[in-house]
Amino acid sequence: MSELIIETHGLLKTYGAHKALQNLNMQVPTGCVYGLLGRNGAGKTSTLRILMNLIRPSGGDAQVLGHAPERLPLNLRQQIGYSSDSMQLIPWLRVDELLAYNGSFYPAWDPSYVQQWLKRLELDARKRVFGLSRGERQKLALILAIGHRPRLLVLDEPAGGLDPLARKEFLESMIELIHESGSTIVISSHQMSDLERIADQIGLVVNGQMRLEMPLEELKARSRRVVLIDKNAQASTQAEALKAWPGVLHLQTRAGYLEWIHENWSAAEEEKLLRRFPEARIEQSPLSLEEIFIIYTSTLTAGGATCPATP
Question: Does pTM top 0.70 for this prediction?
Answer without folding.
Answer: yes
